[in-house]
Protein 1
Amino acid sequence: MLTFTSGQIVQEFGYDDDVDHDLRDAIEDLLGEDLEDEDSQEIVDGVIMWWRDGDGDLTDAMVDTLTTLAPGAPVWVLTPKAGRDGHVAPGDIQESAGIAGLRVMSSMSLAPDWTGTRLASRTN
């Protein structure tokens, strides 16, 4: 799931009451570790970022995820599905990713209310 493997360190941004706890638990079970919070200074093997329309500047948030990200590691932007409160248009994700120096690799349904978009750095 999400290209993560056991033993990797994954940092989480944008946690709030509305996140999909089953998805979070499944990621932590796969990793065998708790997710690192957004204040962690650890170099990480990947990022999940819960993002909703109205959370602020998406481009700035994407740039923030790169601070402790290992080279070539994925960033997953998790957004509410179309028709759900807080939905973010795919074009907005594409535009912000490009400005942040990332590119959209794929998108998939990850939970009943959440879609995940995998981003990669342009140097990959």
Protein 2
Amino acid sequence: MNIHGLQGASEAKLKYLDADFRVIKPGTFVKCAITGKPISIEELKYWSVERQEAYIDVKASLEAEKTASVR
């Protein structure tokens, strides 16, 4: 998703739940906590309830788990 090419694109704020999420602030995308890349709300599949972070793909999710376990 290229947010710079989308008119009216705005970052959403979400509350990540176990099997869903709740919209706190409406928007069209969230940013991946690992890559910083935008993720369309419609395509969001990976997140951490514990860390309240979104991930663009399973690889980024795994990287976040590895980083968290080192702390």
Protein 3
Amino acid sequence: MFKKILVPVDLAHIEAIQRALSTSADLARHYGAEVCYMAVTTSTPGTVARTPEEYEHKLEAFASRQEEVHGQKTSSRCINSPDPTADLDGLILKSIEAVGADLVVMATHLPRHLDAVMPSHGDRIASHTDVSVFLVRPA
């Protein structure tokens, strides 16, 4: 059913997306799918890496560790953006097409009243793509 699963990640907040990571690994194992971990970084130094190249290497290492732990094929896609927060939705949508994903698994927050005015990234992705989007909420 699914051949490639795109999982947006933020290496600075891996602990916050553990449920989404486990869900994507379980789905990949069940369907024999590849998981592509996608991240967006900036050119300015951050808490995870000083350069986009260093961030990309850390993302590749993260994907390799996930492959070893969960046993399914993985890949990574690192994108440099001047404003990751503003550009995130568009970059996820472009990545879906670029990697040929047929499922997106994303961590999300619990619903809140502000979502009526400012929808979450997951809401926007689901409403702007024809692939399935699985939003994983915190426990």
Protein 4
Amino acid sequence: MVTQSPLIEMPLFPLPSVLFPGGRLQLRIFEPRYLDLVRECTRQGTGFGVCLMLDGHEAGAPAVPAAIGTIARISDFHRDEDGLLGIVAVGDQRFRVARSRVRADGLLRGEVEVWPAEPEHPVPVEFALLQSILERLVDTMAPHWRLAPPAMYEDASWVGFRLAELLPLDAAEQQHMLELGDPLQRLAELRDILPRFQKP
């Protein structure tokens, strides 16, 4: 019998893009509800849930979030020249939203089931091309990954998540890649859509 993880409550932050486990997120915070979110997370040492925004906007009325998202943990914050708060967060585990509610201040909170991290799985030889493509993408688009240890490029989950965030996928495709539970299936689907990005 499969046992479900206990639900935990956390603030949710719907965004027009997908955060993957291990990914890096930079945000500028100006709305009071999200300033409260940052204060809560830094005070309690907890994360917040990032979900793809299915409908609505970042500012104003609460947006409709996707059911599957990623926990973001704040790693750094600073004040920009214009006085706005900037934060850097890192993607942790994925989760599924079981229930959500909107607080009086407009902040969305959810009761979520946290998914276990994907087990490490070596990248099969038939996906070696994806490793090479990722190295080139990192070199040009994601300099913060240049110092990643070579062993990371042998982990199917890490390679798939990095490709899903760096390739020019649309938001729905990124969400699909986030929701897949098999790292090898993710690599296979990424390989199959590569021809779309090749120059004629």
